[in-house]
From TrEMBL:
PANTHER family registered for this protein in UniProt: MULTIDRUG RESISTANCE PROTEIN MDTH (PTHR23517:SF2), RESISTANCE PROTEIN MDTM, PUTATIVE-RELATED-RELATED (PTHR23517)
SUPFAM superfamilies named in the record: MFS general substrate transporter
InterPro entries given in the database record: MFS, MFS_dom, MFS_trans_sf, MFS_Transporters, Sugar_transporter_CS
Record-given protein name: Major facilitator superfamily (MFS) profile domain-containing protein
Annotated localization: Cell membrane
GO molecular function: transmembrane transporter activity
Domain of life: Bacteria
Transmembrane as UniProt keyword: yes
Amino acid sequence: MSRTPRTALLPAEWRASASLSGVYALRMLGMFLVLPVLALYAKELPGSTPGAGGLAIAVYGLTQALFQLPLGMLSDKLGRKKVIYLGLVVFALGSFIAAAADSVTWLLIGRAIQGAGAVSAAVTALLADLTREEVRTRAMASVGLTIGLTFAVSMVVSPLLTRYINVSGLFALTGALCVLAIGVVAWITPNPQRGKFHEDTEMQTSRISEVLRNKRLMQLNFGIFALQAVMMAIFASLPIVMRGLGLPKEQHWQLYLPAVLLGLLLMVPAIVVGETRNKLKQVFVAGITLIAAALCGIYAGQASLLAIGVSLVVYFVGFNILEASLPSIVSKVAPTDLKGTAMGMYNTAQSIGVFVGGAAGGRLFEHFGFIGVFAFSMVLTLAWLLMAAAAPAPAAVRNLALSISPIWQGCEERLLAVLQQFEGVEAASLSADRSTVYIKARQQGFDEAAAKQIILGGNHVE
């Protein structure tokens, strides 16, 4: 069985991928860089309550969820770069307001404005405009890798930076980097020759109901909701617990550094085993189990920094496994022409999880202490665990998006019929403009080279 050589990215595609990954990373810094220290910072501001830190986390997720889809749709009409500029300006404004905040009220206003600069959908659409179908998956993967690295670096660097520039300085830094990102988009990111709708990366609002009716996709949406809600609830309360044990916030990196590094190192072999040996469900369920075990460890050992540190290692192994595998499973489960909509709903569920977890974590910690946060987190995690254990294993498939040769013009349905009968093809569909074919194929038994030869017109079927 033959496989075609991997298509190389063109220089313009490398520029687009690198620059937009950087913009996406700056967007995520707004959430991750302040996450380890925000609860403590909010507690020190005038008008604060113990739940204020959680609310400062939550309001960011709320406005992000509200504005993500509208800004993505606006980019289809006004142009990708214009909407990205708008989102980055809004994000920078919110960052500077939060930096200058002299009360919890102004901190919350700044965080809400930050979240409203939701450029994720527009950035993804622009990257799709600037890359060919054959290399788009790799370009999108670079964005995912950037998000993971941003999270890891933020967890360690944030407490260290607060020693020198305080949390207000972190907000000012993210605002300044956002202004820099505008320059990157303007002068480094290529301009698309034309914008088009990409079913594999963009939301189709008319088909949201199909995702809502898809039980498996909704289970995965609940999963990312629970994962984010638990994390935000923990970080709305755990930094306060750690400081109560005598560890200043500037030294919290001493627990986060080994946890993040070991979490990343141990995640890699788990994901490799899951993908290459068709054990993704087992690895996925193991990741949720690790989250549950870590929660028990943190709760049982909340009077010991050592116990918390060990539990954080377990937590980050599970978190990284789930964060990496969830999008992969969504792409395997979603219909070929619905992947963009499925991922759009997935991202919305993620933002809602940030909101619910931050708000609930702060409020529960205020009224019940850490036991309230633990109970909330365990209920979500155990519900998810039961759901994942009962769900079928995802099929060992991969997705391809390929441009159709002009030789097939007017005969696209015939091409689709040929591909649907092709050995190893699970499903195939056409884009709305009939210029692209989306294929979901088995990992084994699919002759990619032969399929490409037909699609590109090298073996035209009469």
